[in-house]
Amino acid sequence: MCYTMVVTKEKGNCSVTDKRYNIYKEDIKMAVVKLTTDNFEQEVLQAQQPVLVDFYADWCGPCKMMAPIVEALSEELSDVKVCHINIDENIDIAQKYRVMSIPTFIAFKGGEESGRQIGAIPKTALVDLVK
């Protein structure tokens, strides 16, 4: 799939340049979306595509081990939205989804939980969780 993006630089109200770039879906790299209580519904429950949510805490050793894997998945799986949420800052969401251990990975499809894995797990297990 190919997208065309027009980039226009403006100085005042005058258009200085107009360049066109072709961007292919496989070249789009997505960053991990930071979730909060304020954006959880919009980013996860209302998402059109599958979503993988990493429930973590800054002090958690296994969470730190999984962070580069989660980041890599966000770049590799263009059809999946990859997110993370700090349970210390968003206790209400962690309680709602009964997160008792971290890291906990929950997959959502159509706004509903479709799978869950707890602990430091291989990258392939995370891919299987969201596919």
TrEMBL record:
<dbReference type="Pfam" id="PF00085">
    <property type="entry name" value="Thioredoxin"/>
</dbReference>
<dbReference type="GO" id="GO:0005737">
    <property type="term" value="C:cytoplasm"/>
</dbReference>
<dbReference type="InterPro" id="IPR005746">
    <property type="entry name" value="Thioredoxin"/>
</dbReference>
<feature type="domain" description="Thioredoxin">
    <location>
        <begin position="24"/>
        <end position="131"/>
    </location>
</feature>
<dbReference type="InterPro" id="IPR013766">
    <property type="entry name" value="Thioredoxin_domain"/>
</dbReference>
<keyword id="KW-0249">Electron transport</keyword>
<keyword id="KW-0813">Transport</keyword>
<keyword id="KW-0676">Redox-active center</keyword>
<protein>
    <recommendedName>
        <fullName>Thioredoxin</fullName>
    </recommendedName>
</protein>
<dbReference type="InterPro" id="IPR036249">
    <property type="entry name" value="Thioredoxin-like_sf"/>
</dbReference>
<keyword id="KW-1015">Disulfide bond</keyword>
<dbReference type="GO" id="GO:0015035">
    <property type="term" value="F:protein-disulfide reductase activity"/>
</dbReference>
<dbReference type="InterPro" id="IPR017937">
    <property type="entry name" value="Thioredoxin_CS"/>
</dbReference>
<comment type="similarity">
    <text>Belongs to the thioredoxin family.</text>
</comment>
